[in-house]
Amino acid sequence: MRYAEALGTAVDWLKRPGPGVVLQVSGPAGAGKTRLLHRLRERFPAGVMVDCRGLTADQVAHAVLDGLGLHMDLSRSRTPLRDVLARHEGDALVVLANAQWAGPLFSSTEPTRVGGDLAAEIALRSGGRVSVAVEVDGAHERVAVTRPKDVRLEGREEPEEPGVPDGPDGPRAPLPRLVAEHPALTALAAAETRAVSLPVWEFLARALGVPATATELSGLAARQPAVLQHHTHTPHPTDTSHGPAVSFRTDALKHLTRTLTPLTPEQQAAVARQLTAALTGRPPSDPVHAYAAQALAPHAALSGTGLPALLTDAPAALARCTRYSVLQALALHYRDGVSQGGVAADIHYLETEGIAPEDQGEWLSWLHWAATNRGDTAWAAALAGAGVPLPWRTAWSHHRPYAVFGPVPGGTGTVDHLFPGSLDGTAAVAGQHLLPPYQDGEYTEPEGDDRAVERIWSLADGTELTPPSTVELFYDLEGDVESVEGRTARFEDTGAPALDPDDRTPIRLPYSATSSCAPDGERWVVAGRGGLYALDPHRPAPPAGDTPLPPWTPPLLAPHTSAAPWEFPGELMTPAGPSPAVLARAFGPDACRTLPASAVPPGLDEATRRCLTDTGVPVLHGQIYLATLPPLDETGLPAADWQGVPAVPSPGDGPFHPLGTWLGSGAYLDAATGRVLQDGRSGASFELTVAGSLPQYLALLCLYRTFVLSDFACTAELHDARSALHRWAARIDPAVEHSRTWQAILSGSLEDDLVVSGWTLPGLRPA
């Protein structure tokens, strides 16, 4: 539509009553998008306009909130954008201009984050009081035009808008011919920053096989003022040369040039190789080094294969890549989500934990920590030895690695409290995990105020000094620990217990941290949901009473990356069900019981017989609330009458062999079909079929038990694991996909619903 019609349509949409609107404004360069957006801003006085060009989504969000007069308390919320938008009062319009050119790097996910995610978040979280007009450009495929009510301008305004040069196909800029005559323009278009210094342009051209000197390139820019422009200095703070720089006159020209002559993956790989050499072989003052720090990771990602190699095989180069550029590269390479395990997964989950260092050394300290957790000490050492000073270094760690399903060998589980002390004169730290009232199938009341499992480690190297013990905690009126009773070890406290993070901790902590202390005044120990670890700071802690380190600014939008679906634990998917070793890991070394062949009831299928005689059935009593299983080697597998309630459909003639309970109801093995059934007597579920076979039943119970035993360090891992549970369970037994009970169990909602309804979960009997 032409300008006048588009303006009228946009105003009509934005004036309609109802929830907040996201109005997309699109059209070719010169059609009048900028003028239309300014007019919209003028028509709605309570409006905010942000030019998103070159800005990150978080920077745009901050500008929007400032314009709306909203202020965040970043220390009080993990979702500050949502919380502050919910407090907005009154109607307003937010105009996001140039959303398609958001982001400091040209191959960026920021256009989608701004024009899609942020625009929708503003309209949704403001209670429908804020509408958004966002400039998009589906033709450039940077922000998709997705809404039917979008406004698309067509044609070209006359006279030309101020500041908009003649288009690339106009008489002053026949771009296709110009690019064909000057291949160095391809190198300039391939640059990830909008403007580059002449040495960087020369470097990129030579990496692409185009011999050109900085002087020649400067002359080319001077001869093409309609397409290129000079800058007096490189407009990026990391370039210390402050020399002359060149850019395309508009982002659209740069994008069109990329479209005309896109780099092949092989060319991107060649650029990445040259930039890797520049990062490790040139000083930070060199403009090519400065560019490589920002752009190596995106170029490696665009090569198709270079980013995984950079992450795993080139720690010295990775150490000099900016954190932001690596996040953008991960989003480019892992379009379907970051794969499970390794450096890429570390970076993804670190961001979900709120770890957002601006300082390069602090960022590397966290990468070193995550690699140490995975046991990749060689990579961690190479990263630490890359020449970038680390403000702190992990000395030892019993913190579980990210994206691991199930318990980790040697893992500690959640550590809630820390106690600095000594054991027989050896500096040590005790960690305590608070126990719930229900354990091992029984409710137990602590003798003190809390009961905990306590473990003691050497401060020097993290060696566990004694077997775990169960202790009783007694608190005073202020909630501090007054005494610890029941210690079997010769542990002596040498300082106050750490029930919370110490304000003097010399590092900024992730969301999952629960406590920290310095047992010897120098080495610090941090505990949390994923375990505990010791670190050596290379800068002193602030004195007592000083202001603690400020928290990181949490990301206002979702992380730059998502996790790919976790890999299915194939050990669960066998015809005979989980192996005895897998069942032992989930339910204990002596849990599985087998039946002699002579004791197996007649009529059972071969898979069920092998499961009973070779694999064994674990004894379950209290490990999970879902089910109990009797010790079959003691009880055998006798036949019993069906005792189902009318709400459960008749299962047939049987015979039926009792298998303990399922959600408080009787569970049976149906010899005629091999299915595991339940009679619904508890009222928790009236679905007849629990599992298609006994091996599948054991695999599902094992899967859920393994999930319960996984002390995931962060909320994002827990979310990803729950998402995986649904897929895995349906793969084990397709009946799960259509079972409301299983779906509620796997999502965690059934347990919560039963508790709210007055059930005591372990026995699943109404209170």
Total beta strands: 29
Shape: globular
Poorly predicted runs are 158-173, 236-241
Average pLDDT value?
88
Sheet having the most strands: 6 strands, antiparallel
Quote the beta fraction.
Answer: 15-25%
Strand order of the largest sheet: 16-15-14-11-10-17
Number of continuous helical runs: 25
The rounded distance between the terminal residues' Cα atoms is 67 Å
Helix amount, in percent?
A: 25-40%
Judged by helices, strands and strand pairing, the structural class is alpha+beta
How many whole angstroms does the radius of gyration measure? 31 Å
In short:
The chain is an alpha+beta fold. Helices cover 35% and strands 17% of the residues.
Please explain how this structure is put together:
The protein has 767 residues and is an alpha+beta fold. The protein has 25 helices and 29 strands. 47% of the residues are buried.
List the main descriptive attributes of the protein structure presented here.
globular; 17% strand; five-stranded parallel sheet; six-stranded antiparallel sheet; 767 residues; alpha+beta
Helix and strand arrangement:
Layout: H1 3-15, E1 22-26, H2 33-43, E2 47-51, H3 57-68, H4 80-86, E3 92-97, H5 110-125, E4 130-135, E5 151-152, H6 175-181, H7 184-190, E6 195-197, H8 198-207, H9 214-223, E7 228-231, E8 245-248, H10 251-260, H11 265-281, H12 287-302, H13 306-313, H14 315-318, H15 323-333, H16 342-352, H17 360-374, H18 377-384, E9 392-397, E10 417-423, E11 426-434, E12 438-439, E13 442-443, E14 450-458, E15 469-475, E16 481-485, E17 491-493, E18 513-517, E19 524-528, E20 531-537, H19 580-587, E21 592-593, H20 606-615, E22 617-618, E23 627-628, H21 632-635, E24 656-662, E25 665-670, E26 676-678, E27 689-691, H22 694-709, H23 715-732, H24 740-747, H25 749-756, E28 759-760, E29 765-766
Parallel strand pairs: 1-4, 1-5, 2-3, 3-4
Antiparallel strand pairs: 6-8, 7-8, 9-20, 10-11, 10-17, 11-14, 12-13, 14-15, 15-16, 18-19, 19-20, 21-22, 23-24, 24-25, 25-26, 26-27, 28-29
Helix pairs in contact: 1-2, 7-8, 7-10, 8-9, 11-12, 12-13, 12-15, 16-17, 17-18, 19-22, 22-23
